[in-house]
Specification:
The complex is a heterodimer. By secondary structure, chain A is α/β, with parallel strands linked by helices. In chain A, about 50% of the residues lie in helices and about 20% in strands. Chain A has five helices and five strands. Chain A has helices spanning about 10-20, 35-45, 65-75, 90-95, 110-145, and strands at about 5, 30-35, 50-55, 80-85, 100-105. In chain A, helix 2 (about 35-45) runs parallel beside helix 3 (about 65-75). The radius of gyration of chain A is 17 Å and the shape is globular. The termini of chain A are far apart. By secondary structure, chain B is α+β, with helices and mostly antiparallel strands. Chain B is built from 15 helices and 18 strands. Chain B has a six-stranded antiparallel β-sheet with strand order 3-2-1-6-5-4, with helices on both faces. In chain B, a hairpin with a 4-residue loop joins strand 10 and strand 11 (about 285-295). In chain B, helix 8 runs parallel beside helix 9 (about 360-400), helix 9 packs antiparallel against helix 15 and helix 11 packs across helix 12. The longest helix of chain B has about 60 residues, at about 25-85. Chain B is rod-shaped. Chain B starts with a helix and ends with a strand. Classes of the chains: A alpha/beta, B alpha+beta.
Chain lengths: ~150, ~600
């Protein structure tokens, strides 16, 4: 299970993000779409989201507010910001919030796929390392003389 | 006649035009001098004429009086002589004549002597009497110098008396002629009749013509005028110049004048400009002629003329000087004002200096006010232009919002990735047209057709971006399309309708309607952007409308207030944007514009 959440207010772009990449083929499951921050939060609560791609400008709750709320609630996930804005304060804000990457519109879907795959790999590697470590720890526990 | 009229009209036109071309100062001086001089000249001319007539009348009446006096003196003298001549019927006289006619010389001796004595005595009464004599029809004459035989045919006096048909006692006069001594005399006589009224002879008195000199000689008419006497044959019998006595009057005054002297009194202008009055002295049929020199009248008039001219010329001179002074007083402030105006045409920051409180002062003040107003208007205009550029620039910046561009481009990539080539073509076309109109070569005014196409392109792109959430409808009257408008007024409103209206709806079914039509008066173009979106809080709507009415770009409602401000700057405060609620929900934005061709 490798959950991907795509947050974008514009329907056409959201569809592009969701449909132009065969996410399932690359092991992303489930692939979720949200039109604003509130919708995104609701989905995060329900599904195990590993990577979130979010637009900045959105009605109701924008991207920055959404990220802050995720950090506050302590969810662990990779966050990729996509925006038309290249302004300094957004970049600054993103760095402060420990955003994983920043994609400037317009971009080809494969770029997003590349970034998403890279993070997936990283996460999987971390996961593998963590499970290896756990295995070793288990073994150590087992082999430890009573 | 017509030609003369046209020549006169031409002359008048030229005169008026020449006058028009003159400076105000010259006009004033000319008018002032003309107004004061013309009545003066007319008055002077009339009084000159009147004075001349009065002077001439005075001279004439004086001459008449003098002539009358001469006439009367002659009459008195003659009546004296007549009284003397009454002595002709004296007994001795009659006896002498009878005896003489009878040829009785001896018998007559006694009477002769006595008569001779008497006649001498009579002669001695008056100094100018030369001879007193009695002449018989027999040709015998007894006078102061003795008894003589006379050629009766040569005696004009005797002939006159003898030729009278009836018994007549009036006197007869024989004009100047030489007596037997050769001296010039005139004779006065009366006939002597016998018992049967038969003519016997006459008694006559020779008077020295010196008497005429004594009566007329000391009379002067003016400085050089005089009196002269002319007998019935038009021979001069008295003239101050003795050499002229005996000459014909025609030689002196011209032949032509003689025939007209029949009336008692006539006035003739003789040769040499003489004023002549004539009276006939009836007993002798003589003419008393008064001559006065017209040159004296002329000299008198010349004096008057000189005086009048001096007064007129000096008055005109004084008046001209006064006119020049007044013109200077009047036109100097005008010249200063003119100077100020000329300066102001180069530099608007000058002001006319006000010296007087009269109309010119008021004019200067008004001019200053006008200058101030021009400066104010110019500043205002500059500021408005600046503001216009600023708002236009902001409107343009709004058009090229990065968000819109990047999202659209992103969308295009998305479409390409899914091979929706038709949609890509349409979108790229719409995007190109959208920016072409936005920029429109820097022109502020575009046709309504272009503006509507612009918003149609915008809506097309937005619709692709936002999917089936809403739809749009454009209904603009055909006649409107070729009229002009400032650009980019619909798109910001439509943008609001999308983002604050239909896109906020929970469900699909949003509709944006754009209407364009003429108002009832046909002088106003009206656009309406009607959405059926989520609508607006009435208080907020009221706040936006208040901001729009108060004008100025309000940062909170930038898009709509920028449109409103640009319309007002371009067309005036009676035009602009207003919000109202769409019946059934949503917002209607009404834009009013003038009809611009």
């Amino acid at each position: 299970m490798f959950g991907l959440l795509l947050v974008e207010d514009e329907e056409a772009i959201r569809k592009k993000l969701m449909n132009n990449v065969a996410w399932a083929d690359y092991g992303f499951e489930p692939v979720l779409g949200a039109a604003n921050g509130l919708e995104a939060l609701a989905l995060i609560e329900k599904y195990p989201v590993k990577i979130m791609v979010t637009d900045v400008q959105m009605p109701k709750m924008n991207g920055i507010e959404l990220i802050k709320e995720i950090k506050r609630r302590g969810y662990q996930m990779k966050i990729i910001v996509i925006s038309g804005f290249a302004e300094f304060e957004y970049a600054q804000e993103s760095i402060k919030l420990n955003v994983s990457d920043y994609l400037l519109k317009p971009f080809a879907s494969k770029r997003l796929l590349e970034v998403a795959l890279r993070f997936k790999e990283e996460l999987e590697k971390e996961e593998a390392e963590r499970s290896e470590m756990n295995d070793l720890r288990d073994q150590l526990k087992k082999t430890k003389p009573l | 006649m017509t030609a003369l009229k046209s020549v006169f009209a031409g002359l008048q036109n030229r005169l008026v035009n020449t006058f028009k071309l003159r400076s105000l100062r010259t006009k004033f001086i000319l008018s002032f001098v003309a107004l004061s001089t013309i009545p003066m000249v007319i008055l002077a001319t009339f009084s000159y004429g009147v004075y001349h007539d009065i002077l001439q009348q005075n001279i004439q009446s004086y001459t008449s009086e003098v002539i009358d006096r001469v006439d009367r003196n002659l009459e008195i003298y003659l009546s004296d002589l007549e009284r003397i001549l009454e002595l002709r019927n004296d007994y001795y006289n009659l006896q002498f004549i009878k005896l003489s006619l009878a040829g009785d010389v001896e018998g007559n001796r006694k009477f002769t002597f006595r008569l001779w004595e008497n006649l001498n005595n009579i002669r001695n009464y008056k100094t100018e009497l030369r001879d007193v004599s009695i002449t018989t029809i027999g040709g015998v004459t007894i006078g102061c110098y003795g008894v003589t035989h006379t050629d009766l045919s040569q005696n004009k006096l005797f002939q006159t008396l003898a030729n009278r048909t009836s018994k007549e006692n009036s006197i007869a006069i024989w004009g100047p002629h030489p007596d037997w001594l050769g001296g010039p005399v005139f004779s006065v006589g009366k006939a002597i009749h016998g018992d049967y009224d038969n003519f016997l002879g006459m008694m006559s008195i020779d008077v020295d013509v010196e008497l005429l000199d004594r009566i007329c000689g000391n009379i002067r008419l003016g400085k050089t005028g005089y009196i002269m006497l002319v007998d019935e044959d038009n021979r001069i019998i008295y003239h101050p110049n003795p050499e002229l006595i005996g000459k014909m009057i025609g030689a002196l005054l011209g032949e032509s004048s003689l025939t007209d002297w029949q009336q008692d009194f006539t006035t003739k202008m003789g040769p040499g400009n003489q004023l002549i009055r004539v009276k006939t002295f009836a007993p002798a049929n003589w003419k008393i002629i008064g001559l006065s020199n017209r040159f004296e009248l002329a000299t008198e008039m010349q004096k008057i003329t000189r005086l009048a001219l001096t007064i007129i010329v000096s008055t005109i001179l004084v008046l001209t000087l006064m006119a020049v002074y007044f013109a200077h007083l009047l036109t100097n402030p005008l010249k200063e004002l003119q100077q100020s105006m000329r300066q102001a045409s180069e530099d608007l920051n000058t002001n006319a200096v006000i010296h007087t409180m009269d109309e010119i002062g008021e004019l200067s003040e008004t001019f200053n006010q006008m200058l101030a107003r021009i400066r104010q208007l110019m500043n205002q205009s500059v500021q408005e232009q600046e503001k216009m550029r600023r708002t236009e620039m902001r409107a343009l910046q709004e058009q090229i919002k990065p968000h819109f561009i990047y999202n659209t481009l992103d969308l295009i990539i998305g479409l390409l990735e899914t091979n929706k080539n038709e949609d890509v073509i349409n979108t790229v076309e719409a995007l190109g047209a959208f920016f072409r109109t936005s920029l429109s070569h820097g022109q502020e005014l575009i046709t309504i057709r272009e503006e509507v196409e612009h918003v149609r392109n915008y809506l097309y792109i937005q619709k692709i971006r936002h999917g089936d959430k809403y739809n749009y409808l454009i209904e603009v009257e055909e006649q409107l399309l070729n009229k002009k408008t400032i650009k980019l007024i619909l798109q910001p409103i439509v943008e609001n309708a999308i983002y604050h209206g239909v896109r906020e709806l929970e469900t699909a079914g949003g509709l944006i309607t754009i209407k364009g039509f003429f108002m009832e008066d046909a002088n106003t173009v009206c656009f309406q952007v009607i959405d059926n979106g989520v609508g607006m809080d009435p208080a907020k709507m009221e706040d936006i409308n208040r901001c729009l009415r108060e004008s100025g770009t309000e940062q909170r409602y930038f898009g709509i207030s920028n449109v409103n401000e640009r319309i007002r700057l371009a067309f005036g405060p009676e035009y602009g944007v207003e919000l109202s609620a769409t019946p059934g929900g949503g917002v209607t934005v009404t834009i009013k514009l003038p009809v611009v061709k």
